[in-house]
Structure formats: C-alpha cells, structure tokens
Specification:
Length: 74
C-alpha cells in the first residue's frame, strides 16, 4: 500500500511516492470527485484485505492462489 510522505497533508494514494505515475490525479477532478475516489479506494482496500485474509486462513490457500494465478495467465 502506498503511504504519504511524512507530514504530507495528502492521503497516501495522492501523495508523491517512489512511483509518481501511479499517484497522478487528472487536473480536471474536483475536490468532491477526489473524496469520492478516496472513499471508493478505501472500500475496495477493505474488501481486498478481507479476501486476502480469508484465502490465507483457508487450508487450501496455496491451491486457491495457484488456480487464481493460472486463470489470470501468470
């Protein structure tokens, strides 16, 4: 997960990072759109973390991950 620079007023997803291309925000985005995007990303991160924890806790975690990688073509 991306973290903001120390003392940065920006949220982690918007702050400059080691890979600034991922943190670029189109200039035409309004403040409300930025807040909506941040909320959507927090929501997605919550589900992603929950799914990861569920898979890791499953007895067949390695098989599940291998199947997902195979389906994704990795």
């Amino acid at each position: 997960m991306t973290t903001a620079a120390p003392n940065s007023p920006l949220p982690g997803w918007l702050a400059p990072t080691g890979c600034d291309r991922l943190a670029v925000v189109p200039p035409e985005m309004t403040e409300e759109q930025l807040r909506t995007k941040a909320a959507a990303e927090r929501y997605a991160r919550t589900w992603w973390d929950a799914l990861n924890e569920a898979v890791r806790a499953h007895p067949d975690a390695n098989q599940i991950l291998a199947d997902a990688r195979r389906r994704a073509g990795r």
